Amino acid sequence: MAAENILIVEDEEDVLELIKYNLAKDGFKVSTAMTGEDAITTTRSVMPDLILLDLMLPAVDGLEVCRILKNDPKTSGILIIMLTAKGDESDIVTGLEMGADDYITKPFSPRVLVARIRAAIRRKKKDVAPDSQILRIYDIEIDPGRHRVTVKGKQVELTSTEFSLLYFLAKQPGWVFTRYKIVDAIKGSDYPVTDRSVDVQVVGLRKKLGRAGEYIETVRGIGYKFREE
Fold first, then answer.
1. Residue 203: how many CB atoms within 10 A of its CB?
2. What are the pLDDT digits (tens) for 183-192?
3. What domains are there in the chain, each with its CATH number?
4. What is the pTM of this model?
């Protein structure tokens, strides 16, 4: 099997070389770019499997690179993991809303970085589960065909929006979603879903799930995720 090609976009040469060394050592093919313009050009030329995109770039910054690539049908399917300074919550939210797939804050462990890259690629390769397939995670069973949820074998009555919210998060454990992405995904018919009403939905869902509600985790300043097994 051919190794995945990772494009590293980083303007600090020592950081770029550190990432490049660790990814190459782990068997990845590696391409590099040090500016936003080069990142766009290289992406369209190489068509990497995943882009590690630093947000703080000269001239064209990482958010603009992300926007351009995600709005181009030829490159929109390429995975993007943002590299960002810790605490830049507004940039993280903006990047995720533009379509970035994940983010890692600096400083980071090379081992964690490789693990996150492999997890992202694994998720993309997974076949999308058909709507009739029952999803089992922890002690929760979600049956989309019957629109039924059980926790430890006991049925939990959920609204249509609560069900959609739970199913959306549980299908992609560990993945962080902004409120806006959740709204786009569930579009509840029984409740006027807005970015702020997502919080209300989560509170109600956690309450109905009891102890299992702890699997739905708040990511401060960004949104929600389902705890990874």
1. 12
2. 877 765 554 5
3. 5-125 (3.40.50.2300), 135-226 (1.10.10.10)
4. 0.71
